[in-house]
Amino acid sequence: MKNGTTLLLLAALVLAGAACLTFWEGGSVTATAASLEATDSGAPSAMVIFPVGEKANPAGAGLKPVAFNHLVHEKRVEDCASCHHTGDTVSCTTCHTVSGSADGKFVTLAEAMHSPRIAKRPEGTNTPQSCVSCHAQRLRERDCAGCHAIVKPARDESWCVTCHNVDVTAEQRRQGSEGTLAPEENEALAAKAVEAKKTATPLSPAKGPLKVTIDAISQQYEPNVFAHRRHMSSLMEAIKDDKLAQAFHTRPETLCAACHHNSPMSSTPPACGNCHKPNIDPAHPERPHLKAAYHLQCMGCHAGMNVARPVNTSCVSCHKERAPQR
Amino acid sequence: MNRRKFLTILGTAGVASAMSTARVAEAGGGVHMFPYWENSYGVLHDTTRCIGCRRCEEGCNKVNNLPKPKKPFADLTVCNTRRRTSAYEWTVVNKYSVDGKPVFRKLQCFHCNDPACAAACFAKCFSKNADGSVTYDGTQCVGCRYCMIACPFYMPGFQYDEAFDPLVQKCTFCAPRLKEGKLPGCVEACPMDALTFGRRSDLIKLARARIKDHPDKYLDYIYGEWDAGGTAWMVLGPKASTPPPAGSHGDGEMKALGLDTQIGNRPVAELTYGALGAVPMIVAFWPVLFGGAYAMTKRKEAIHKAEQEAVEKQAKDDVTTALDAAVRKIEETQGQPAADAARKAMTEALKSREALDSCHASSDHGEGK
Description:
The complex is a heterodimer. Helix content of chain A is about 35%, strand content about 5%. Chain A is mainly alpha-helical. In chain A, helix 5 (about 140-150) runs antiparallel to helix 11 (about 290-305). Chain B has two domains: about 5-20 and about 280-360, no CATH class; about 25-270, Alpha-Beta Plaits (2-Layer Sandwich). Chain B is built from ten helices and ten strands. In chain B, helix 1 (about 5-30) packs antiparallel against helix 9 (about 270-335) and helix 9 (about 270-335) packs antiparallel against helix 10. In chain B, strands 8-1-10-9 form a four-stranded mixed sheet, with helices on one face. Classes of the chains: A mainly alpha, B alpha+beta. Chains A and B meet through helix 11 of A and strand 8 and helix 7 of B.
């Protein structure tokens, strides 16, 4: 039996492969959740948060429920108590129902999830966090603070559907609100929504101009040559692996909108001077004049990202001194 | 007029004027001592935008033709010292610190809605104008510098170096430029829009909107909205990460910028408007009062003199008539020569009595002394 060992090995391989396939098939039948990476805490990797309420919602109206990715959030926070503020790792909807309950000190589900700022609790007591307040804190960190110091994300429909994205049937919604939906089905729905979520590929810096000459109002100094591509690349590099940015920067042009703000998002945004006039517009006193608009954008972002240089008052760092005019 | 009467009149006048000032103060009661112009202008100074470049100082110096400072405007180290405005520097930028980060604030006249300087000036040199500016006209200035003492922001400066006709000088809100439709020099020079010019009512809305949009960036306090009864120039301050203890709303942070929130929200002008507003009234009224008193005294003296003279004349006439009658009787009974001798003797007797009288009078006078 010269080839006996080889044959045996081959047979074993085939058997193992078949066994694997069978197991995988079986798994996919019971729950799709297995497709997501398991959590360290043992909690489901993702779950759907339904609007649980005492009052029945027979019409089934309302926003789509939220698929909460427990896995990615768990990795970002210090411990369970960061979110489970009572120390008890139960679902948020246990206390915070749609209309509020005594257990949740009548803090409604919407408030518990969206309160932008939460008053600090006395020393030794855990200050609760809402999704929005925690995300807002993250935006104050260096990588985000540059853009987010100068622009405020639009709170429109596209902001809502970033989280409210689970397609459910009326029956599932009813069961979810009543709390009678089977955990397996809940997790399966969540996993499906998480996997279906597409991340937008940001526009390549190469698509934008290499340098932009800002000369509309140059008088005392030479026009500024703004390294557009270098700024774009460095901003993108800083947040390329950031899950929060990936989740909320839902369009390829989102990053562009930090500077090219207020106009509809576009890969060819209008020039700053379209809205910001060289002298302040009496009809829009709140709108900085063009010179201030540039300075506020550049310096605001640099201050947010702790860019020490150039110093704000060093004009010649950005604008070359102009030779005396004859 | 005797002493008692004079004092009575003076007292009455005093009470009357005091009552009129009391009425002014009552009517004030945190409202306005000066007309409030709905459409007046103002400037919002956003200290979170200010970078301390001193361009505003340079702009002010240029448009107002002020003397060149010793240190150039490019020297930014001067911001580190707590400078004050003077007769030749109508605006200065100082550096403060909030949360260990530098914050710059521009100092200049706040152009109060109810300017204390104007209320304190008895020569009426200051006026609050419809465009929001508080301007000074030195033609009547007596150089008392009450305005400098009255100003809660220590803004007016005095030309101490002028030997003849020194004047008080301060920011004019570039009132002449406003009339031409131009922005104030400092506002025009600001590269950061840290100074926003507009109607005061619009600026308050603008400031509120900024605070609302960036609650973590701005302190929820518009300095000058109500402080000192409201000012045309207002200041927004940055929010400190460590909130001050409860009950001191806005105080700690604004104090860090050298702004006093304890001035209160009633016009400072209220304190001086009554008393010093009465000065022109007194200047006009007192000459009439004293002139009248003097005239009355003079008239009484004249009447008295005339009366006395009349009495004296009457007495003299009586004596002459009696003498004549006596002489005529003697002439009838004893003849001409006896009458002549009697007349002579009687006239001499009268003369000697008169001399004695005047001698007595002078000796009486001497005793009286």
